[in-house]
Amino acid sequence: MKSIKHILFLCFTFCFASVFAQQGGKEIYIDKVNDFIISYPDEWDLEQGQDGEITIYPPFSKESYSEEEDDSDLNENESEQIFEEKIQFTPSRWDGGDLEEFVEKNFLSANLSEFFDGFSIAKEGKEKINGYDAIWYIVNFNVGEERATSFFYFIKLYNRVISVSSFCLTEDFELNYKIKYLEIIRSTKSYLDSVQKDKR
Q1: Most CB atoms within 10 A, among 26, 42, 44, 145?
Q2: d(CA 92, CA 95)
Q3: Domain locations in the chain?
Q4: Span 134-151, mean pLDDT?
Q5: Is 156 helix (H, G, I), strand (E, B) or coil?
Q6: pLDDT for 61
Q7: Helices (DSSP H) in 145-190: which residue ranges?
Q8: Is the Cβ–Cβ distance between 102 and 94 less than 8 Å?
Q9: C-beta atoms surrounding 55 within 10 Å
Q10: Does CATH number 3.40.1000.10 belong to domain 25-63+70-199?
Q11: Which one is predicted more confidently, 93 or 81?
């Protein structure tokens, strides 16, 4: 009887540990000026840019490059190294209309094929993210001889639109990036709303 209890205890302990291991740690990024909060995996690197833009880099985007490559390897892989897997958040003040008007003016009316070779919209849709309107697109384009896939999300938070763009090679999209990118994007919240909820 004692051994059965011991085995059950061990099973419970391992199951409990695996649940926490799968959850992983989270970092919270707060931008009080541009009124948004996101959470992202703590092993990813966050870099702040100008005007509230942030870029988050996954750890596995850097694993494929060795520091000990010679010059010929660097030249052959130059196009690969220019393309980085990442997700960017860019806040914009928007008092001029609804979210559809912002997307039309700042995304759909732009000639994105000038910046992205072979650019095409594969899917599009609308959803609510933490109660806020969002419009999204999945797009494909070429990176040298490779094919890349990106999310473009636009989330309206009061008088701000948070534009989100993510980048990865298409072959890695489903396996490594899609779920993680969506978790980060869908964590987007208003800072002011969070403060008001905490006061209640």
Answers
A1: 44
A2: 10
A3: 25-63+70-199
A4: 96
A5: strand
A6: 57
A7: 170-172, 178-185
A8: yes
A9: 17
A10: yes
A11: 93
